[in-house]
Design goal:
Blueprint (H helix, E strand, L loop, with lengths): L1 H25 L7 H34 L6 H10 L5 H19 L3 H26 L13
Helix pairs in contact: 1-2, 1-5, 2-3, 2-5, 3-4, 4-5
Length: 149
């Protein structure tokens, strides 16, 4: 299951990048102007989207190859992950909300909606990712606490 480990490593990388831009967005450098803030906002939205994509695809891969469960899409993956206890009730609902947010921003991008999403990232979604991502590492290991190859 080296592929599962690689998926987890990639998830951690993009989460780390989300963390860095979230810090810049919430504590911008003194020289940051309106254009810089717009760039931080756009970057944070994109990294948030990528973090979410890699998260649900990690869960999908885990469900398929470790549990033998076929899934259809992100909502199905989230629901099944919730049923198996891979995510909490609160996290599951937040992840389902993210699916709706992602679809709305992708199909009808405007700056106000992006700002609203950034506020949700800063005041909730980011913290949730900071709890889920480290917890998922255990799923890359087998019962003997060895890496799954």
């Amino acid at each position: 299951m080296e592929k599962l480990n690689n998926k987890y490593k990639n998830l951690c990388k993009i989460y780390s990048r989300l963390s860095r831009i979230q810090q810049k967005y919430t504590n911008p450098p003194s020289y940051a102007d309106e254009e810089d803030m717009e760039a931080y906002m756009t970057t944070m939205v994109k990294r948030f989207e990528l973090t979410f994509e890699l998260l649900w695809k990690f869960l999908k891969f885990y469900l398929k190859f470790s549990q033998g469960i076929d899934t259809l899409g992100s909502k199905d993956v989230i629901r099944r992950s919730l049923n198996l206890g891979l995510v909490t009730e609160h996290e599951g609902q937040a992840l389902l909300d993210i699916v709706e947010e992602r679809n709305a921003v992708a199909h009808d991008y405007d700056e106000d909606r992006a700002r609203e999403l950034c506020e949700k990232i800063v005041h909730g979604y980011y913290q949730m990712f900071s709890e889920i991502v480290p917890r998922l590492e255990k799923f890359t290991k087998n019962e003997k606490n060895e890496e799954v190859k």
